[in-house]
């Protein structure tokens, strides 16, 4: 069975990997631009944002992602990562109570007083939640390893149209397939002219990891393949997608959030990476017969691989039946 996947971010690369493992012959068409999954260091963090919400699939997703990283490393791919835990400082008792209400019983956790935090924090935090099964990974490396390990044929082009059985590409022409899976991310839905909610964010890359364990509230500090990052997805949600830019006011906001987390003295900014993520999870077969995994929001590496595996299983079962 031949399956064509549009998009080689974490959604498309995971889908290609899972479909190939299920016996399909996979072609991936990718424009090679505006790929949110190239994020230099992404958190695998089951407890989200400032609300402390936990997705029902967070634990399964986290376990699946770490399992994939181990499988890929066993196959010889290097995926810089640290399953080092994640620290979530919270500002007051109310925020702690909100977080506690959301924590499922089977999620490993410990609460610390700020002075006992495993990583030194700036003053002003009331409590620190430690999530020992979380961590960070190199988004670009994981995505590239999944794509390479899938053995998929990769066509570098921007699909201009598609239906359930074929993709049209300006350069590569018409690609026929038994099924088409769209994993276009933020840029892809914008190119397709779809209404959507896009959210830009930026990581400053740092010459050193300020904290060995990622620390996250409002923004995150994490180790990276080289040095570390300070980042967040924080621009105002927008109905249109714009190529990556970093307004100066955003730079000030991000540095302020970083200083609120911990002492940044001694760290140098070496660069920046800006991307856009897409809200509104859509997965499974669509009314037009195509398949789709889009709208992973800020949970691309927490849930993307697991959801791709579910999609691949459904797609392959639908063809076998
Ligand atoms: C600043 C920032 C920080 C983030 N931090 C985290 C984090 O800590 N943890 C976490 O889990 N997630 C994080 N995310 C979110 C995560 O990056 C995304 O959820 C995830 O990468 C989305 O993956 P995707 O495969 O859906 O889309 P993308 O990675 O955007 O990939 C889509 C691909 O499809 C291609 N494409 C689109 N349309 C077409 C077409 N018509 N033809 C051919 N190719 C096409 C694009 O060129 C692109 O390569 C962050 C995002 C940002 C912006």
TrEMBL record:
<dbReference type="Pfam" id="PF01266">
    <property type="entry name" value="DAO"/>
</dbReference>
<dbReference type="GO" id="GO:0005737">
    <property type="term" value="C:cytoplasm"/>
</dbReference>
<keyword id="KW-0560">Oxidoreductase</keyword>
<protein>
    <submittedName>
        <fullName>FAD-dependent oxidoreductase</fullName>
    </submittedName>
</protein>
<feature type="domain" description="FAD dependent oxidoreductase">
    <location>
        <begin position="3"/>
        <end position="313"/>
    </location>
</feature>
<dbReference type="GO" id="GO:0016491">
    <property type="term" value="F:oxidoreductase activity"/>
</dbReference>
<dbReference type="InterPro" id="IPR036188">
    <property type="entry name" value="FAD/NAD-bd_sf"/>
</dbReference>
<dbReference type="InterPro" id="IPR006076">
    <property type="entry name" value="FAD-dep_OxRdtase"/>
</dbReference>
């Amino acid at each position: 069975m031949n399956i064509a996947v549009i998009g080689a971010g974490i959604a498309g690369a995971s889908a290609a990997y899972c479909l190939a493992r299920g016996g399909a012959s996979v072609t991936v068409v990718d424009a090679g631009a505006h790929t949110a999954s190239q994020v230099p260091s992404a958190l695998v963090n089951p407890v989200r944002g400032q609300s402390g919400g936990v997705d029902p699939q967070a634990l399964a997703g986290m376990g699946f992602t770490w399992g994939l990283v181990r499988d890929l490393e066993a196959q010889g791919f290097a995926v810089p990562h640290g399953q080092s835990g994640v620290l979530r400082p919270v500002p007051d008792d109310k925020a702690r109570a909100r977080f506690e209400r959301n924590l499922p019983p089977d999620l490993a956790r410990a609460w610390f007083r700020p002075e006992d935090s495993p990583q030194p924090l700036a003053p002003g935090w009331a409590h620190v939640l430690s999530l020992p099964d979380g961590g960070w990974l190199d988004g670009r490396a994981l995505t590239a390893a999944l794509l390479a390990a899938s053995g998929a044929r990769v066509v570098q082009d921007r699909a201009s149209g598609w239906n359930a059985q074929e993709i049209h590409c300006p350069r590569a022409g018409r690609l026929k397939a038994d099924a088409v899976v769209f994993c276009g991310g933020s840029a892809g839905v914008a190119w397709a002219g779809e209404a959507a909610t896009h959210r830009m964010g930026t990581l400053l890359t740092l010459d050193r990891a300020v904290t060995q364990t990622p620390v996250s509230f409002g923004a995150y500090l994490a180790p990276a393949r080289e040095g570390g990052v300070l980042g967040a997805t924080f621009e105002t949600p927008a109905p249109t997608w714009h190529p990556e830019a970093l307004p100066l006011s955003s730079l000030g906001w991000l540095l302020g959030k970083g200083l609120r987390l911990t002492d940044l003295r001694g760290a140098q900014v070496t660069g920046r990476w800006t991307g856009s993520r897409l809200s509104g999870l859509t997965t499974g077969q669509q009314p037009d017969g195509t398949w789709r995994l889009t709208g992973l929001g800020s949970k691309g590496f927490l849930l993307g691989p697991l959801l791709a595996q579910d999609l691949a299983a459904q797609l392959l079962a639908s063809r076998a039946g």
